[in-house]
Please model this.
Amino acid sequence: AGVEKAKDLAARAAVDEFVKDGMAVGIGSGSTIAYGVVRLAERVKEEGLKVVCVPTSFQAKQLITENNLPLSDLENHPQLDVAIDGADEVDDDLNLIKGGGGCQTQEKIVASCAKTLVICADYRKDSKALGEAWLKGIPIEVIPIAYVPIMAKLKAMSAETVTLRMAKAKAGPCVTDNGNLIIDAHFGQIKDPAKLEAQLNGIPGVVCTGLFVGMAVKVFFGQEDGSVTTRT
Ligand code: DER
Model:
């Protein structure tokens, strides 16, 4: 199976195992969860499932509405039963790097409001330690006025690479759904994600990092051979 099939298998397995009738579901961002939203829409149709979906980004909101799923928000559902999302890298302890798609802030908020965070990913995301395979750096959302001093502080913290994320189809830097900028900082293999996250969060102007430490309870990996493996 190629990568896309692996994503599809993982996302469908996660939705099938964790979404039950009557649930309020946090919907993640990125390309893997898109398959999960399609599966959820199938189940709503086939099983008459009653769910409400809370997005983690403009993209997630589009996925929900394009698949005719009931759209809600944290004002109406401040406590969610489950959040299902993707990841850029997963370590042995289920710590994550997220934010490859630049949506980690609302993703972390929604995940923190859910009883359970479940991740679906293809085989490329499975690492022993964070920073092993994902070399683009930890996505760090920052308040725009502060990006230059924050980049300097990250370099002083011995980040190997520190990059302001630039937009692809628009001149200038990538701007998040919250109107902020993103700095990608690579620290090599991360032995103590909790410590690093606390250090990064302590920098004034940092809004949220893509380190999700001790949040996920289960990860579904789609494999090249068409199987789905899980880690808890
Ligand atoms: O940006 C994000 O946090 C996404 O969830 C990312 O971590 C996974 O995106 P992908 O499923 O397209 O690889």
